[in-house]
Amino acid sequence: MVNTIASHGIRTLPTCIRNIVNGMVAISRLQALLQLEEKENYTVVPNRLDIAINVSNATLTWEQMIPNISQKGLKSKKGEVNLIIAENEKNVPEEISPKTALVSTLQSETGLPPVLTDISFSLLKGKLIGVCGPYGSGK
Fold first, then answer.
1. N or C: which end of the chain has fewer CB within 10 A?
2. Which of 48-57, 63-72, 80-89 has the lowest mean pLDDT?
3. Whether the Cβ atoms of residue 85 and residue 73 lie closer than 8 Å to each other
4. Local structure of 110: helix, strand or coil
C-alpha cells in the first residue's frame, strides 16, 4: 500500500513540475500585461444593441521579442516559422537587452509586421467564444 502511494507520487512528479512551470510562465505574462501603459481606446457605439464585439476589416499587429537571435535569422524547424530581421531593425535599441531582437517578416504603415489582415467578425451578446492554441501562439 505504501509502495503504491509512493510510486504514484513519483510517476506524477514530471507532470506536476511541467504544470508548475507553465503556471509560472502564465503569471509572468499576466504581470507584464498588467504593467503595460494604458492606451487610448478606439471604440464606436454599435448600431445594433445585440452585438457585444464588432471588428470590421481590421489588420492586427504586435511586437514579438525573440531571445538570442542572430541577425541572419532563424532556420526553420518542424512547426516553427522562419523569421528574418528587417533591415531597419538590425540596430537594436539600447533599452532592449543584447540577447533579444525585434523581428519581423513584413512591414506595415506602423513599422510592425501585419500578423492578421482584413479580419471581420461580430460577437453577439450572450454567446460563447473560444480561442484555442498552444502556449505562446499569440492567442
1. N
2. 80-89
3. yes
4. coil
Closest CA to 118 of 53, 42, 51, 55: 55
Torsion of CA 25, 128, 124, 113, to 10 degrees: 30
Closest CA to 86 of 68, 64, 104, 62: 104
Report the percentage of the chain scoring pLDDT > 90: 14
Place of cell 444593441: 49
Q: 88 by DSSP, 3-state: which?
A: helix
Handedness of CA 49, 51, 52, 58 (dihedral sign): negative
How many CB atoms lie under 10 A from the CB of residue 101?
A: 20
112 phi, psi to nearest 5 deg = -105, 155
The 10s digit of each residue's pLDDT in 97-130 is 333 333 333 344 556 666 777 888 888 888 888 8
